[in-house]
Amino acid sequence: MEPKADIALIGLAVMGQNLVLNMNDHGYTVVVFNRTVSKVDDFLNKEAKGTKVIGAHSIEEMVAQLKRPRRVMMLVKAGSAVDDFIEQLVPHLEPGDIIIDGGNSLFEDTIRRTKYVESKGLLYIGTGVSGGEEGARRGPSIMPGGSPAAWPHVKDIFQSVAAKVEDGSPCCDWVGENGAGHYVKMVHNGIEYGDMQLICEAYQLMSAGLGMTADEMHHVFEEWNKGELDSFLIEITRDILAFKDADGAPLVDKILDTAGQKGTGKWTVISSQELGIPITLIAEAVYARAVSALKEERVKAARKLKGPRPKISGDRAKLVEDIRKALYASKIISYAQGYMLMRAAAKEYKWNLNYGGIALMWRGGCIIRSRFLGKIKEAFDKNPKLMNLLLDDFFRKAIKESQKSWRNVVALAAKKGIPTPAFATALSFYDQYRSERLPANLLQAQRDYFGAHTYERIDKPRGEFFHTNWTGRGGDTSAGSYTA
Fold this sequence. Notes:
Blueprint: E1 7-10, H1 14-25, E2 30-33, H2 38-45, E3 54-55, H3 59-64, E4 71-74, H4 80-89, E5 98-101, H5 107-119, E6 123-130, H6 132-138, E7 141-146, H7 151-161, E8 176-177, H8 180-209, H9 214-224, H10 232-242, H11 264-275, H12 280-292, H13 295-304, H14 316-349, H15 355-361, H16 372-382, H17 393-416, H18 421-433, H19 440-451
């Protein structure tokens, strides 16, 4: 039997089904397999009816349908399921065949798996796929990394099904070796946490502070989506605020205020700590979800812990504009921190990341897609070695124009007892980053006092360390230098 399929896909949950149909629409023949085999037949008889999709009831049958080099993509739950399928696939494949993990795997697992699969003579790709169910069906953002030799064999398929920007460029390109693709997807998800938290804080300021109704805030977000905040997340917030429950009341007001998370935001924060990069806004967004989960404790605390009334008076239109500018400035900080983290990871793992290209990949299809990302691409196109987005002329000017409003919002929120952890940490980071001198000199003196950890001096060359016998009772032995 002559193989007919261009690519195989394992995992027929909604994302997998939609990606298969997307590939079919673009002229590719896909053979599908699922651990629960009945799902294969259900898919062929329903969603895939009338398409060229082929069903397989075993790994062996699936592989037999594939043209060489064989391309097998998994869209299964991250973790042991990925390793299990790799072990099942390896005996049926031959040198040069390609295994692709399209799930939300931890990048360190992808580094390990790439090395293992390559040791078997095969090629491996770990790719981020963003855009949710709709993105998978109509065009996601795809961020592949792994074995470079695999890219030419999947490039046409990936770039055909990916989202496109205005000039037709696909939101997909090769990211880098081993875990680079999944790392960039992880940072994307971390930034997504930050964007969502910032929007929620703007919503809280308007609802709890200004007393605005869901309909009034719907119109605000509708206007914001026409300007520099134009983005998918602002757009869906606009729609959510307009959505009514069966009784005609805003549905958003009836949703319990406890947020879930799948772990990618936490992974981003852990990686930042290991690399020593201060992604403070994403960290606060992760912790804000954790605080929201303490619902029962918060209900009890609300009865006992007192603070100011949240009501904000004044010119509502001006305050709403201040909130918009605070949101925009904070968003710039979040992306600047995300790019700081990717730059550090590229150095640590020896990846050659194209930062402007990453902004293009995020420009369409994915959850954080926005007009804003075009400006990031322009910044890195102009200066590929840009140290920090905040130093680009466009973003420096944007922060300058928003700064007064930003400070006003953070100060007002603090006075009125409205929690804005992401707005506040963004402003604190900005002030830290622009400070030529921080109080870490005192901190180093403290560390040297109690632990003989040494310090450097401003009147001596960097890299020369000193220890002081602060009490006259200590000795001259130091504990060694420190990592800054």
